[in-house]
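Why do we care about 3D structure at all? Because function follows from shape, and shape follows, mostly, from sequence. That is the central idea of this module. The next example makes it concrete: a single protein chain, its amino acid sequence, and then its structure expressed as tokens.
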Amino acid sequence: DEGISFAMIAAGLIKVIAHNQNHPHTAYYRNLLFNLQPDIVKELQLAAIARVNAEDYDFAEELFSAALNLNREEPQLFVNLSLVYGQMARKARDDKKQELYDEAIEKQLQTLREGVDLHPNSELLLSEYGVLNLFLGNDEIALKYLNSYLKVAQEGEKRDLIGKQVNQLTERIDNEKTLFAAFDAMQMGQDERALALSETFITNDKHQWGAWFIKGWAHRRLGDYQSSQAAFLRCLELGEENADIYNELSICALELGNRELSKDYLEIALELEEDNVKLLSNLAFIHMRDGEFNRAYELMERGLAIDPNDPAIQFLQSELTREGDEGEE
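And the structure:
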């Protein structure tokens, strides 16, 4: 047919290979393309790079995908395609399009993972996949593949740099395990062990508020309210501000004899979580014991409106009723 050219046939074959590498005739199409143009993989890459420079990422993706599916034995082709997805992710992030960003990152991860599975000893793919996971915060995956890279990599500046990153990552993961262990110890009532673990973590990282929180929590349960208060104040100094911290500070202030400060801390906590029944009941009890019944009633009613079946609120209601009956007598 005079209306069909070899270029049109090649374009059709390229499109099929780019989008459907499992097509039943892929091997035949691949051979045909190489016969039509032996340098097809190189030319596809050059065309794709031109489209990337023009920010035509969809077309670049198609061209790099075709090049990769024509020669999956070359690790660099997996990396080239992944870099296009990286560019697409950056553009989506700049345009504040979270769904497109997530999609591009997932494609980038999948491309590199396919490459690593096919070429498990490729320095290039192991380093690219490991560093990408490190960037995304997937620390344990990053550590696994970067360690694999170090086992096969040749000496050089890149290997030295990744070696330092692996050492830092190993230390960070070990620290995180220490922090999780401290939290688990608190949950199991092992307060002294939790305190020791939190202090071990703080020795290595003084800027993680969670470690200071566990330290304060452990000190409070062990009855050392001064040390507990200091730890919770350190959480605030590090920039963390949540209702749990202020509730713990309220307990410390109360135990240290500063009832007004205790109320102030709970008021701040309620500003952060206005529907927290535990905070409402805690503050109401302090006001009740100080004879400030109007404020205690107000807080109780707020708690009843949120959860009339809460045991603390029900007990508070009974106590306030009893106080009211005694006052009438």
